[in-house]
Amino acid sequence: METDKNKEKENNLDTKKETKSVTKENAEMGSTAQTKNEKFVEWSPENEMIMVEWCDVAQCYKWLNTRAHNKYKMMNAWFTIPAITLSTISGTASFAQASLPVSMQSYAPMAIGTLNILIGILTTVQQYLKISELNEAHRVSAISWDKFARNIRIELSKAPSERMDAGPFIKICRQEFDRLMETSPSVNEKVVQEFFQAFSGKEGSIERKRFEALKKPDICNIIISANEYRHPWYLDESTNTGTDNVVFVEPENEEYIRKKELELLEKENTLRNKENAEKDKQNRRENAQKMFQKGFLELSKKLKLQSKKLEDYVQAFQGMYGRKPIVDEIERHAEPLIESGEIERETLVKFLANYKSEGVLDLV
């Protein structure tokens, strides 16, 4: 019986070991599958620029929240200390009321009531302005922003081979950055002005250069176009649609990037100006053709009217005298019309060149 029990125990142990080994293998397979599905992201200058920007913004928020915490701490002290003092005086006066002179005992309740009213006003105003809550919120926010900036600064100070993978680290930092932006209290505008006065420095100084290079948050009245954060892959003319042939530009070449952008804008402007000039030239040509056609039609119409007057004279003369007029007669008839401007001399010359008298001797 004992041998059978020992055999059963051994079988149970073997089955447990097999199940444990199977679960370990499944876990290892699952972890390898997850690592295969996750894309490995190396550290690049663009990823480091994102981290640098977040670290700068975190340092700015740390200073702003610390300054706001100091202000609210002072305000909290100005509200709390008088309330404690007045409440202590009021309590002491209520106990010592019987020891006062008889002439002063009637005024003691009024004085104690006044002190209690002042204490109530101070505490109510303090609660309405949420001074203690904002004081604690700014303190916690300053500590959180400092911790966030310190983690990024330590990670960037390492060599790329010693750092954590860029993909998970950026994901963690982005989640923490979003959380801090949501939970941090708003900063007063006076604190922002003090921030500029404390770090801007004089023109041309090292402090001014560092302040200009610092990436500041949006509450500092600074908004930067998203085009400055765009990856400069499009500036390389040899790039293809595939990501393997993309050549990334180092962040030190910002001036080169801006020059390329200006060159592209200048090329677009020159092409646009050429197109506009060609359109203007085409419009002028079309307008000139229209004006020429219009003038030609008006001139031909005018010549027809003038020739019609001469033809009417010839027909009238022929109907009256039974013959066509000679050239001299036509010229004598046309002279007053030429002087009055009804007929031009060129019209008369052309009419006489085409005129043929029938049965009449041309004396000219």
Automatic annotation (TrEMBL):
Residues 257-294 form a coiled coil. Residues 1-27 have a biased composition (Basic and acidic residues). The chain crosses the membrane at residues 77-100, 106-125. Keywords: Coiled coil, Membrane, Transmembrane, Transmembrane helix. Residues 1-37 are annotated as: Disordered. NCBIfam families: SLATT_4. This is SMODS and SLOG-associating 2TM effector domain-containing protein. It comes from viral metagenome.
